[in-house]
UniProtKB/TrEMBL annotation:
InterPro entries recorded: Thi_PPkinase (IPR006282), Thiamin_PyroPKinase_B1-bd (IPR007373), TPK_B1-bd_sf (IPR036371)
Pfam family name, one: TPK_B1_binding
GO BP, one annotated term: thiamine diphosphate biosynthetic process
Annotated protein name in UniProt: Thiamin pyrophosphokinase thiamin-binding domain-containing protein
Organism field: Gossypium gossypioides (Mexican cotton)
Residues in Thiamin pyrophosphokinase thiamin-binding domain copies: 33-97
Length: 106
């Protein structure tokens, strides 16, 4: 939780949390994000989690279950079990989101 707090507190910096099996980064609400997937090392499992405030509208492309102006919040819908389907994923939201993606074992 402390690491998640750091990436939120320093949201103007691109901070990536990397473990043996996943990557997490903050997607600030002020951008339309293009995420280029390196399929040789990333995916296919991914997720988007609203952090700080609920999302009234999140939209994605490139995922098995794309969001279309979808509302998300803790205690309600969160997109934690999605699948990357394209080499480019786009994400736009009215709140900050955490992007998670699995890392393949080499």
């Amino acid at each position: 939780m402390g690491n998640l707090n750091v990436i939120c507190r320093f949201s103007s910096m691109r901070i990536v949390l990397l473990s043996n099996d996943s990557l997490i980064q903050l997607l600030p609400r002020t951008y339309c994000h293009e995420i280029h997937i390196q399929t040789s090392v990333e995916g296919p499992h991914c997720g988007l989690i609203p952090i700080g405030t609920p999302s009234k509208s999140s939209t994605t492309t490139g995922l098995q279950w794309d969001l279309n102006n979808t509302a998300m919040e803790f205690g309600g819908l969160v997109s934690t079990s999605n699948i990357v389907k394209e080499e480019k994923v786009t994400v736009q939201s009215d709140c900050d989101l955490l992007w998670t993606i699995s890392i393949k074992k080499l």
